[in-house]
Amino acid sequence: MNFTENIANRYTTKLYDASKKVDADIIEQLKQVLYLSPSSLNTQPWNFTFIEEGEKKQALAHHSFHNTEKVQKASHIVAFNVIDDLEYFEQKIEETLPEYAVQYYQNNLKGQPAEEIKSWMSKQVYIALGVFLSACASMGIDSTPMEGIEPEKYTEILGLDKHKTILAVAIGYRDEEDLNQLSKKPKQRRAFEEIISTTR
Ligand SMILES: Cc1cc2nc3c(=O)[nH]c(=O)nc-3n(C[C@H](O)[C@H](O)[C@H](O)COP(=O)(O)O)c2cc1C
């Protein structure tokens, strides 16, 4: 399948087959995908936690609202975390980015209210989400992006210090009874012309 077909065939999985686990080598590839995701100025204001079956995954399930069963039955959960400590963030970029990028940050972003800088950092994490969902699709892995979680509880259970969880993704293999799969529920989108236009 080409990329467009992979995207057309992916869907948000609502019911997982708990007996099927994603192989370790695929998990390693998905870790690389997140590691290599792009971010503005290459600031990488994030980290990502892969949660295998175990105590923490079951604890997270109870702080995942309508997503509880997905978290319980999916093979792995990936927490998408953003840096929550601006001093730490600035120290990281000063240590690792070229001078022009540090200057750009200092001249254009640093003066803004902390909440705006943090919002800009969160946008970078959502770019990684898009890359990750696309990678899953191309590798035949089913996935569920989940904002329907309690981020503070995830942050606490995962023991994050300088970061906080903002969303999570369940990955695994669909249960054949999943009512959301495309054979049972065709893709829903507004009219193409309403969404996509061309101009010059
Ligand atoms: C950022 C984000 C958060 C989402 N949160 C949830 C969620 O908590 N639970 C869920 O079942 N689906 C969640 N979804 C899935 C969307 O509802 C789904 O992508 C949308 O309805 C389009 O359907 P499709 O992904 O099957 O094409 C989320 C999607 C995105 C992009």
TrEMBL record:
Transmembrane spans: none
This protein's UniProt keywords: NADP, Oxidoreductase
Nitroreductase domain: residues covered: 7-173
Pfam entry (one): Nitroreductase
Tagged with keyword Oxidoreductase: yes
Family, as annotated: Belongs to the nitroreductase family.
Protein name: NAD(P)H-dependent oxidoreductase
Organism: Persicobacter psychrovividus
Gene that this sequence comes from: nfsB_1
